[in-house]
Amino acid sequence: MSARVIDGKTISADLRGKVADAIHRLRRDRGIVPGIAVVLVGNNPASEVYARNKSKAVTESGMAAFDRKLPVTASESELIDLIAKLNADEEVNGILVQLPLPKQIDAHKIIAAIDPAKDVDGFHPLNVGRLASGLTALVPCTPMGCVILAKTVRETLAGLEAVVIGRSNIVGKPVAQLLLAEDATVTIAHSKTNDLPTVCRRADLLIAAVGRPEMVRGDWIKPGATVIDVGINRVAGEGGKSRIVGDVAYTEATKIAGAITPVPGGVGPMTIACLMLNTVRAACAQKGLPAPKV
Ligand code: NAP
Fold first, then answer.
1. Contact at 8 Å (CB) between 120 and 95?
2. Is this model's pTM higher than 0.85 or not?
3. Is 254 helix (H, G, I), strand (E, B) or coil?
4. Which of 21, 42, 49, 75 has its CA 20 to 30 A from that of 14?
């Protein structure tokens, strides 16, 4: 039996469509156009592509995009000044600072400078703390996407043994918090975990967010498990070209897992869709409106 493929492209397109409908209703019924500022510092080619894709998706969904660019030499205080202006701008409901930042800038200070109500990445310590406390929060987009994908193949995550490989602030820790909120029994594994294959083998739901190409082998997977692969790794392909693979050895895993996300086309497209959703939620909360039905 081959695993069911969790099609992130289709699921994210559906979510983006629902978010676009919510934006349309906000504009039609209340004259509100949610806006997001995408801040890019420097000219890291990958960051430029990510920032451009986010701005494009924002515009396509009917929201306003305010692109802000600073040179690679920008100081921490210049960036903090820009964030203060965006915090005060009523047309800007969400602020996203593309990471990584140049080395002279402390990302923690920058994230802390963003108004938590506009923190659509969900990285501000207040949102992190609210999520951990079980309160309403803006939650990080990739982890939110992982949970949405898992729920397309599992009626409930309650009671499942979930293993998350990776403990970054961006993916591993917040996805673990979201799974806990779904009543899963959660283990967070990392580079110091003893006997990782055995830990993974007990997972009904395995989330790999490591950044190591095809590290998770087929025989690490419990038969029938749901596997969500967050990894994006560029490796050498045929004819001198490169290709993208995940953290899971996909061909092996499909023979054992019950359901699995492909790379590309799994978690990746969900991240932007969840960013759209977060921005509409932020805009509604700032205007004192109930969260949109999506
Ligand atoms: P990160 O900050 O580098 O964290 C990697 C985590 O993996 C760390 O906690 C590390 O453990 C753990 N790890 C490293 N080697 C390991 C090993 N041999 N065994 C077990 N654990 C190990 O990476 P990240 O930002 O979380 O991203 C992870 C992956 O997801 C990357 O491929 C990234 O490109 C991808 N990603 C994709 C999206 C998307 O939209 N699809 C979004 C974000 C990230 P320690 O803490 O002990 O060092």
1. yes
2. yes
3. helix
4. 49
